[in-house]
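dumping this here before i forget
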Amino acid sequence: MALEFTGERFLPECEGEIIYEHWHRYLFARAHVAGLRVLDVASGEGYGSALLAEQAASVVGVDISAEAVGHASHRYGQRANLRYLQASCDSIPLPDASFDVIVSFETIEHMVAHASFMDEVDRLLAPGGLFIISSPNRVEYSERRGYHNPHHLRELDREELRALLAPHFPGQRWFAQRPCFHSLVWPLGQPAANVEVMAVDGDTALPPELYFLVCCARERGRLDGIAPTLSLVADRAHSVYAEWSRTYAENRELQARLAAEQAGGAPAPLLRRAAGPVQLHVVHDFGGGVIQWLNDFCTADETRTNLVLKPWSLSHAYAEGLVLYDSRAPGRPLRVIRLAQPMQATDEHHPEYRQAVADILRDFQVSAILVSSFIGHALDILATGLPTLVINHDFYPACPAINLYFNEVCTRCDAARLADCAAHNPDFNSPYRVFPVEQRLRIREGLARLLQAHAVTMVVPTDSVRRHLVGIVPALAGLRFETIPHGRAPALRPVAPPARGDGARLRILVLGIQSVTKGMKLLFEVLPELTGFADLYLVGAKEAGELFRYRPGVQVVDEYRLEDLPAIVEGIAPDCGLLLSTWPETFSYTLSELLQMHIPPVATRVGGFADRIRDGEDGILFDPDKASLLACLRGIDADRGWLVRLRAAVEALPVRSLADMVADYHRLLPLPAGELMIPAGGPADPATDRLLAALHSWKSARSMGVRLDMKEGRLREVHEELERLRGEAEGLRAAVRDRDLRIAEIHASTSWRVSRPLRWLGVCLKRWRG
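structure:
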């Protein structure tokens, strides 16, 4: 039940100086309500009554709008000492003298029956009570500015307000209010002993009063506890000043552009209005989970502009250049940069990269940086001076091999082991990557040093990531780590449970790309025995599906669209989903997809799987070896009721939304609200179009190359199997020929002819005895 801002009443979601004005009044009043009964007249959205309820014994918020009262009751009514009531402010159905404090802010100008309102306040206020009222100063608010507020019916000046209050409240203490910009100097380490307000010329800097705030009482002594204090209120982000600064910079930019065009020079870049503060995502260009997270985040983040910086390359170097684009328009780059010195993997310092990033931060007024990958980037990205998060989707560059696996999950990685890994771990070190051991060590040391020097926050999707990172690089232990699980859009519907009779073969779904990191070697090891009692369905295996195609008991679906996945899986009707990763997954979107479809997961006991799955309750974990996997699956095959219980637990699991995830990131990176002008994408550029086409072709060629390699490997395997079978067949044929020859020799021998009568007698004797 959300209220729409019409200008008549303030909402906490408003932006600009109005937030200071309204919150300040209630904060002022909160200091005078501790332990007292409070009435808030014209409580509006309800935020102020809720604030007062933090200190008061009880609070009643009254408003003439049924919609506002309903909203306030729904949003704030959970407090036991707070309730909201619909009523007109000059006829409130509550007992006489039932409140110790009555507040009414920006109310009186919305009515003409001022006297009736004052009578009602006088009736409801208990003896010794306090009335706090605010009202715009008509002279300054309207007359001097030539402004007319359509919601105001009768505004008062100072003398008119004093005359209205005096018959009921002889005791009055007056305050003025107005939002202003000031430079603030305050003592550090001790409270301020004095307040001084001045202008740059040394004269007083107090402005004309825009609003009056008056504390009233029947007895003047009731006001003795209200000190004549000057108070300042701002939000932590100082958003109004920040908005003014951005607007000022925007105007300067527009003036410079106009001056350049009037002078006949080259026109300045076209500008566009950004949707909120700008943050820059730094990612690689390999696809996978990082890009899935990026797309999800940017889709759900409706209040900020998310720019994306990727490396591009047409060779085996990881970065021949950089491309910048807006996540809301990824088809047209905002900027394409070519590096004279390509980055083979990751550089500690790269002058061209550093300058390119500095230009982007300046031109696009970036306020924060989220680093999702250092692949194809330099560590200079950590030293911009802006608030920065590192989101650890994998373990690079702390682990130069990315996946933290060298014969086993790595729990340590000193210089000797790192060098050994680089030389003898081909499954996790690309042969095309030029990344010498000395540079790997230098990057890892530089990473730890820069993270500490710039107080960068490390975000991990599961806590196991933090444990692993600190295990291999102990210097990271002192950093701030925050666990923010990934969210998911409600893209996959649950699929119906399998409905097969007793004795049916077990059906196992293996979802997602198959690779060495995803446990493909372990799958090959168990395949002959596994297919003896189960059917295997590889869905989305991509190029590696070629290695499994046409094997008995295995069905392969190369690719799928996400929206088609539930229907595909429903056609399979799997009993469980198998997750075989041998490296410690940091999160696993595949696990999330299984859970969304209510398929019980069976996973290796490593990384994020062990963090997210409660073994035996909503999934099953096994050690990543052949014996453990087969024992686990045979146990499931023998007790199908186990899967029924697991599925019931999976169905009850809560779903974390993308909005929840984005809100957690905003909490870590609070940025001032407001709009600003940033460069727009330029017109179509043939050179850029050719580069983008070339990049697409390069990626397609690499994918085709991998697929052909897989097909070649499978054909080689089939050829070797045929050669083996051909050899076995030739051996069997030779054995048959040898047997036939020996039988012929026996038949032709003299002993065979001589013994024929005896063999006949033996046969007859056996028949007689039988």
